[in-house]
């Protein structure tokens, strides 16, 4: 239909693009520093919803905080 070879399609799917969660990581770091480094992942999840009206799974928030080097 699109006249793209199968190998090109799979190569495109395997390609590592920019981090899709980069904006969320940035927002988590902003909140973390605003709140004087006292928020854990549970409170961070609630604050993301309050400020951004954005629902994010608690496991994802925990993973992103760990990747960013935040320990709480």
Task: Describe the protein.
The chain is 61% helix and 0% strand. With 72 residues, the chain is mainly alpha-helical. Helix 3 (41-52) packs across helix 4 (58-67). The termini are far apart. The mean pLDDT is 91.
**Helical content, roughly?**
55-70%
* Number of extended strands: 0
- Our estimate of the beta-strand percent is under 5%
Question: How many whole angstroms does the radius of gyration measure?
Answer: 17 Å
Q: How many helical elements?
A: 4
Largest sheet report: none
From the spread of the alpha carbons, the general shape counts as elongated
Offer a few descriptive terms:
72 residues; 0% strand; 4 helices; elongated; mainly alpha
Short description, anyone?
The protein is built from four helices and no strands.
Secondary-structure topology with pairs:
Elements lengths: L5 H9 L7 H13 L6 H12 L5 H10 L5
Helix pairs in contact: 3-4
